[in-house]
Specification:
Helix 2 runs parallel beside helix 8 and helix 9 runs parallel beside helix 13. The protein has two domains: 128 residues, Aspartate Aminotransferase, domain 1 (Alpha-Beta Complex), CATH 3.90.1150; 241 residues, Type I PLP-dependent aspartate aminotransferase-like (Major domain) (Aspartate Aminotransferase, domain 2), CATH 3.40.640.10. By secondary structure, the protein is α/β, with parallel strands linked by helices. It has 13 helices and 13 strands. Strand 6, helix 7 and strand 7 form a beta-alpha-beta unit. The strands form three sheets. A seven-stranded mixed β-sheet has the order 2-8-7-6-5-3-4, with helices on both faces. Strands 9-10-13-12 form a four-stranded antiparallel β-sheet. A two-stranded parallel ribbon has the order 1-11.
Length: 380
């Protein structure tokens, strides 16, 4: 058994522990029901049935039709496909333009560079100091050649909710498609694709206590896009490759659990974040980012006075706490978070920022222990 010193895990925006329901649902598909879902015999028909059941479970989580759910390897693939698949579906000789925001996940921002290489013009809508991208920022960038707007539902660094529904209303009388990266929203924010008005929506299993390597792209009926993975006829010809049955089944079980426990979990997460922020507000010099606008309940991004994030995170790790930095410095990068930079946070505050993100398994007592450890670190 692998040993770990982490006793209190507070980085659930990075990943979440696998829930028991997902683990139990996956077990038969490792050994007993190992068939290829595309084959015609009994063991494969059982696998196909499991995939179809998971498709219904995930569709139910977001208010979609099951045939609008396409399984992927995770949120990154779903984001890549949403942008590139719609771009490749455009007239080859036509001018092509997309609008993104300057606070998107790297899965979107890095794909923007690929879009440019294939002749698509890309504009970035700016957020305000609270980390919100307002509809008028999108509106002033719209062109005749715009075919897609992509705006995340919940920012992964700050938890700030974006006005996706309002953007959809803005685009309603146009032919512009709307994609939202809802990876951080699922299970924490109510999602209904019809109420949101989106055409494409990305999900990731491991952010809702499902397995890693599982994802979904919701594709509204009659949305024209090209496949990125070519080969067999899987996923109704939209994504080739033998299905990862255990991961798909686990994702479905996690989605069903997230749906059935949503109200209780949302209140629990909000109570945890409120308890944390009440304590943070008693510490001189602490700045909580994005707290003056609507946020998902599970993320708190804050800066400590005079304390570099990397040092604090390493020290907390030695004490058994797992938290994230609120900037790209966690990977050794020299530049602070592009999200905090876009919010006009000072360089020092960005370099001193931490991200605490809660899961349903966390407790108020763990929050108290974390605050005690943090206050000791600040004094030293």
């Amino acid at each position: 058994m692998v040993e770990t010193t982490t006793k209190i895990y507070l980085d659930n925006a990075a990943t979440t522990p696998l829930c028991g329901e997902a683990r139990r649902a996956m077990e038969p598909y490792w050994d007993d029901v190992f068939g290829n879902a595309s084959s015609p015999y009994a063991i494969s028909r059982a696998a196909r049935g499991a995939v179809d059941a998971a498709r219904h479970q995930i569709a139910n989580l977001i208010g979609a039709h099951p045939d609008e759910i396409v399984f992927t390897s995770g949120g990154t693939e779903s984001d890549n496909w949403a942008l590139l698949g719609t771009a490749l579906a455009q007239d080859k000789d036509a001018e092509k333009h997309v609008i993104l925001s300057n606070i998107e996940h790297p899965a979107i921002l890095e794909t923007a560079e690929t879009l440019r290489r294939i002749g698509v013009e890309v504009d970035f809508a700016r957020c305000d100091e609270n980390g919100t991208v307002h509809p008028d920022e999108i509106e002033k960038l719209l062109r005749e050649s715009t075919f897609l707007v992509s705006l995340m539902m919940v920012n992964n660094e700050t938890g700030v909710l974006q006005p996706v529904r309002e953007i959809a209303h803005l685009l309603k009388e146009t032919k512009v498609l709307l994609h939202t990266d809802a990876v951080q929203a699922a299970g924490k924010v109510l999602l209904n694709v019809d109420e949101l008005g989106v055409d494409l929506l990305s999900l990731s299993g491991h952010k809702i206590r499902g397995p890693k390597g599982s994802g979904v792209l919701y594709v509204r009926r009659n949305t024209h896009m090209q496949s990125l993975l070519r080969g067999g006829p899987q996923e109704r010809g939209r994504r080739a490759g033998t299905e990862n049955i255990p991961a798909i089944v686990g994702f479905g079980a996690a989605a069903e659990l997230a749906k059935s426990t949503f109200d209780r979990n949302q209140m629990h997460l909000l109570n945890l974040r409120t308890a944390l922020e009440n304590e943070l507000n008693t510490i001189d010099g602490v700045v909580i980012h994005g707290n003056e606008t609507q946020r998902a309940p599970h993320i708190c991004n804050f800066s400590l006075p005079g304390k570099r994030a990397e040092s604090v995170v390493l020290n907390l790790d030695l004490q058994g706490f797992a938290v994230g930095t609120g900037s790209a410095c966690a990977s050794g990068a020299l530049h602070p978070s592009h999200v905090l930079e876009a919010m006009h946070v000072t360089l020092e505050e960005a370099q001193n920022s931490l991200r605490v993100s809660f899961g349903v398994q966390n407790t108020i007592e763990e929050v108290r222990q974390f605050i005690d450890a943090l206050k000791i670190k600040i004094k030293n």
